[in-house]
Write a structure and sequence with these properties.
By secondary structure, the protein is mainly alpha-helical. The chain is built from ten helices and two strands.
Length: about 220
């Protein structure tokens, strides 16, 4: 994303606080709270044939990690530091720890999506859907939800979190934005199943995930 904050040279542990790189303690705490919800949704290791992301652990999928490791030297260093250097395979995914997953979530999702700049509640909705749908799709869902909530002028649904999207998310009433975000997430999930009926087995869990958006 062109408007995203740059990734650092290293990938630190997610428990850093203000004196070690967080703007405020509240920012660190918001990440930790939202991360716990994502972990609860995603669960531990699985390798379901119907899962298009392949083997997954703590929500980190094989397809995602292969792509990130290929283009991001910081991710490769993180994996190497954890004894997971070399080609990313299903065994790499199985061996990922919760702390490693948390660091990946911080620098591959929370920071690029500029979640620290969004109101509490909105940050978690964007983070959750960026993890589940990808950063660009998650950003588009936020922009669509802002538009559905009645913000004018309408945002371009370009999948980039920039100053206009942040300002609009701050301006819309949270209760309206939460309802709209839940609705656009449901629409996305139902569209996935309509296009690919093999994904029907996941729909119940996806709809529960959408209904919980904005609860933390």
């Amino acid at each position: 994303m062109s408007s995203a904050a740059a990734r650092p040279e290293t990938v630190p542990n997610f428990r850093l606080r203000a004196s070690r790189g967080w703007a405020t303690r509240d920012a660190a705490d918001r990440f930790s709270i939202c991360l716990e919800r994502v972990f609860a949704h995603e669960g531990g290791f699985n390798n379901l044939k119907a899962d298009r992301g392949g083997a997954t652990n703590f929500g980190i999928s094989l397809r995602f990690l292969q792509g990130e490791a290929a283009m991001n030297p910081a991710v490769r260093r993180l994996l190497a530091d954890q004894g997971l250097g070399g080609p990313v395979t299903a065994q790499t995914i199985r061996a990922i720890s919760a702390d490693t997953a948390a660091s990946l979530y911080l620098w591959c999702f929370w920071v690029p999506c500029r979640c620290d700049e969004l109101p509490a509640g909105v940050d978690g909705m964007l983070f959750d859907q960026a993890v589940n749908a990808g950063r660009t799709n998650g950003a588009r869902l936020l922009q669509r939800a802002v538009n559905f909530a009645g913000h004018h002028p309408h945002l371009a649904e370009d999948g980039q979190i920039g100053p206009r999207t942040i300002a609009a998310a701050q301006a819309v009433r949270f209760v309206d934005l939460r309802a709209a975000f839940r609705e656009v997430a449901v629409q996305r999930y139902r569209a996935i199943v309509e296009a690919n009926p093999s994904q029907q087995k996941f729909l119940r869990g996806w709809l529960a995930r959408a209904a919980a958006l904005g609860d933390v």
